[in-house]
Write a structure and sequence with these properties.
Elements lengths: L1 E7 L7 E2 L5 E2 L1 H12 L2 E7 L2 H9 L5 E5 L3 H6 L1 E2 L4 E9 L18 E4 L6 H4 L6 E4 L2 H9 L5 E5 H7 L7 E2 L5 E9 L2 H10 L10
Parallel strand pairs: 1-4, 1-5, 8-9, 8-10
Antiparallel strand pairs: 2-3, 5-12, 6-12, 7-10, 7-11, 7-12
Pfam families: SBP_bac_3
Protein name: Solute-binding protein family 3/N-terminal domain-containing protein
Keywords: Signal
Amino acid sequence: MTKIKVCADPFPPYQYVDKDGSIKGKDYELVVSRLRAAGYDPEVCIAEWDRIYREFQAGEQDVLFQAQDSPERLEKFYFSKRLRYAVTEIVTINADLLALKEYAGLAGYKVGVIAGFANGPEIDGLPDSCKVEYPGTAQVLQGIYDKEVDCGVCDQGVKEYLTAGLPVLYPIPALTYKRPLYVMFNQEKQRDDFDEAGQGQEEGYDF
């Protein structure tokens, strides 16, 4: 089998490094099994987004999974068919924000986001002056608890996993949205092999 270097940022329960050092998660298992079916032997790295994206752009990693598309990325990289839809929430402990109906209303607040992350036009289009960048979801959530920011952008499943047993963070109902996630490749053939190995399977899943 051909060796292939694969990376993703930690997004439990979808992909994460367990206490025993093993990598686990539904997205991890799906991507690795499909790459193996395509004839590849994946070597997987789970690290913070800024590191893995830098390495992927430099060609040090062949594959980056659980990624959002953007016009810039579509020009540079090869995208798989949809991996799944992510439910993205804007969460807060400030009850005053729960009545917001439009994303533009966030411009008057401090919004925690993951540095370098593409959240879709709803969030990416907000003024940079209202965004506070963090290295990962756990830090975004902690920033909300510490009142460094008024609210934060996070994946619904990751939030539920990381905040189990902690004070409740409330999603702003009107600002919850879905965004498609993909697997990015530096080489077109590897992307095509991956998609071909997934033929006959349901395209993507909601989680």
